[in-house]
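FAQ

Q: What does a record look like?
A: Structure on top, sequence underneath. For example:
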């Protein structure tokens, strides 16, 4: 770790991230953006991350495929990619290395995470969203491999002391349903799900999408149900079979990395969620009445 720099203790879903940065100004930016996740309390699970801020172009002792071998083994387009909505694709890659993970974005980010030591190194331009990208990828990689849980590409809302998750592809309505929520919004993009004390618990995260209403008043809540979102002309809920739930959840677990061990760990999380948490398909119109449909399904 960078010597002489105070560590920021960031707690995300029970994972204490000790972050040191060699740039005081950017360290302050991290502290400000993650202010509600800063803690002085010890945690049972800790990772250490060193951040080095540099000007582009940024290189490492390794280079991703999209840099070194243009046109060879190209990364596939996301199935829901819409150029008009999503803009130009950025060259991005997350890939396993012996003992860990590597992540890269353009010439602006290089990150490595060692699973055994639970230590990461990020070299990046001065951009808080690049730090989000690397830290979220580290956590998404770590949680399933340690059997703790997963990050789901989902919004989350706390209702009556319980949490409800809404997942689906980009554009399916995760941020929309978060804006309509009558309860505290945990996230509209990356919901942390951990298996604690014999039950699944949903946690707020600092990784937001289109809708960021500010710090959530709820840090975590027992998970009451998961809803696969489909925009429609009317509100309707259908209970998913175990097989359907596993298939749909597998498409929304963050992130897909082509590695057999990681893919098997994600599949185990999807199977456990489908077995232990009620899962539904929610066809919905973007109005507040959708919450009556959600509440009715949870009461059954």
């Amino acid at each position: 770790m960078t010597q002489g720099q105070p560590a920021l203790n960031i707690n995300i879903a029970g994972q204490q991230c000790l972050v040191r940065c060699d740039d005081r100004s950017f360290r302050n930016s991290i502290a400000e953006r993650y202010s509600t996740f800063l803690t002085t309390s010890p945690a049972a699970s800790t990772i250490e991350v060193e951040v080095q801020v540099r000007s582009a172009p940024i290189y490492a002792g390794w280079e991703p495929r999209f840099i070194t071998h243009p046109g060879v083994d190209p990364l596939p387009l996301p199935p829901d990619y819409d150029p008009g909505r999503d803009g130009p694709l950025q060259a991005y890659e997350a890939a396993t290395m012996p003992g860990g993970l590597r992540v890269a974005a353009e010439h602006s980010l290089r990150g490595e995470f060692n699973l055994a030591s639970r230590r990461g190194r990020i070299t990046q331009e001065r951009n808080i969203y690049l730090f989000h990208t690397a830290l979220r990828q580290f956590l998404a990689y770590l949680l399933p491999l340690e059997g703790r849980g997963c990050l789901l590409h989902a919004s989350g809302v706390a209702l009556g002391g319980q949490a409800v998750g809404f997942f689906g592809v980009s554009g399916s309505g995760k941020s929309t349903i978060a804006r309509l929520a009558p309860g505290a919004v945990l996230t509209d993009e990356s919901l942390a799900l951990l298996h604690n004390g014999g039950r699944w618990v949903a946690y707020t995260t600092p990784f937001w999408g289109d809708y960021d209403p500010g710090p959530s008043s709820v840090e975590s809540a027992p998970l009451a149900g998961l809803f696969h979102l489909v925009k429609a002309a009317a509100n309707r809920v259908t209970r998913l079979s175990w097989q359907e739930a596993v298939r749909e959840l597998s498409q929304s677990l963050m992130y897909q990395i082509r590695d057999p061990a990681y893919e098997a760990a994600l599949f185990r999380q999807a199977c456990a969620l489908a077995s232990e948490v009620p899962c539904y398909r929610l066809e919905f119109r973007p109005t507040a009445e959708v919450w009556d449909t959600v509440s009715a399904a949870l009461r059954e």
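Q: Is there anything notable about this one?
A: The longest helix spans residues 128-145.
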